[in-house]
Amino acid sequence: MNRPDGRAEDTLRPINFEPNVAPHATGSVLVSFGNTRVICACTVEEDVPRWMRAQKVKGGWLTAEYSMLPYSTHDRKQRDINRGKLDGRSSEIQRLIGRSIRAVVDLKKLGSRTLWIDCDVIQADGGTRTASITGGCVATAIALNKLLAEGKLKENPLKGLVAGISAGVYQDTPILDLNYPEDRDASVDFNVVMTENLEFVEIQGSGEEAVFTAEQMSQMLALATKGVKELVALQKSAIDDADKADPEALEDLAANFAK
User: Fold this and answer.
1) Cβ pair 172, 215 in contact under 8 A
2) How far apart are CA 134 and CA 168, in angstroms?
3) What does R_g of the chain's alpha carbons equal in angstroms?
4) Burial class (CB in 10 A: 0-12, 13-18, 19+), 244
5) Are 15 and 231 in contact (CB under 8 A)?
6) Which pLDDT score is estimated for 258?
7) Are 70 and 78 in contact (CB under 8 A)?
8) Where are the domains of the chain?
9) Local structure of residue 79 (DSSP, 8 states)
10) How confident is the model at residue 146 (pLDDT cuts 50, 70, 90)?
């Protein structure tokens, strides 16, 4: 079996995190899984949803929004606003992002505030939802570290990191981190979300007009576990880099964006 980009079955695409790309967000990162690129930003709102106030629920909330920019795909993708509603796929993905990151955030320690996680796909080549989860967690960690540094939080609500990765069966072989050609032609497609302690948050898997065995499923989950271990190490490095960033350099970046 030869993968389109020549990778081994258990190898991730080149992964990169570029922190602090959105100066007006509390935390942000441009995450790249190969040619898939997503801007993930965490913005803090000093308020909670109306339903929390009405039900007197203590703590805060975290929610996510996901979109693919029109030029992110080979053929221009129509904006949701032009259709008058969010498409079903985008709605499902943003709920997944929110669930995944809430799994590692202690909302009671967050206080009466809301974290908005915005994930905007600027280039799609497979795995946009898993890249969004992985980058969204990094953006959240950067934002919470800023709140801690500013004295707005006494304890860090982040209990750990969470990451997502795809696995699948391509040409009868289980593989890790599918790009678009592999995702298109795969007979089985899995999306796996795990914490840094390798506990499962969510598993989405199905055969594409095909079936799969228990052995194949075990192989895909083993590949995903290996991938998440590697992603978490990269996440931690990106968060450290963002925390060490020169404040004056960030101000210059903000000024350039404002021009």
Assistant:
1) no
2) 18
3) 19
4) exposed
5) yes
6) 47
7) yes
8) 15-78+88-245
9) P
10) very high
Residue 67 pairs with which residues in a beta bridge? 120
> What residue type is assigned to position 194 of the chain?
M
The number of CA neighbours under 13 Å toward the Cβ of 50 is 0
Cβ within 8 Å of residue 84, ≥6 positions away: none
Query: What are the E-state strand segments in the chain?
Result: 15-19, 27-33, 36-45, 61-68, 114-123, 162-170, 173-176, 188-195, 200-207
- d(CA 159, CA 154) in angstroms, rounded, equals 14
Looking at residues 138-149, what average pLDDT do you find? 97
Kindly report the backbone phi and psi dihedral angles of residue 161, in degrees, each rounded to the nearest multiple of 5, phi listed first.
-100, 160
Distance separating alpha carbons of residues 144 and 156, to the nearest angstrom? 7
Q: What residues contact residue 36 under an 8 Å CB cut-off, 6+ apart?
A: 13, 121, 123, 124, 125, 126, 127, 128, 131, 179
Residue 131 vs residues 21, 32, 54, 114: alpha-carbon distances, Å: 16, 7, 35, 22
pTM above 0.70, yes or no: yes
pLDDT tops 80 at residue 1: no
Paired sense of beta strands 188-195 and 36-45, if any:
unpaired
Residue 76 tokens read as 């221009």
Q: Which CATH class, in words, describes the domain spanning 15-78+88-245?
A: alpha beta
Which pLDDT band, with edges at 50, 70 and 90, does 77 fall under?
A: confident
What mean pLDDT is reported for the chain? Answer: 92
pLDDT at 74 over 60: yes
Q: Give 175's strand partners.
A: 168
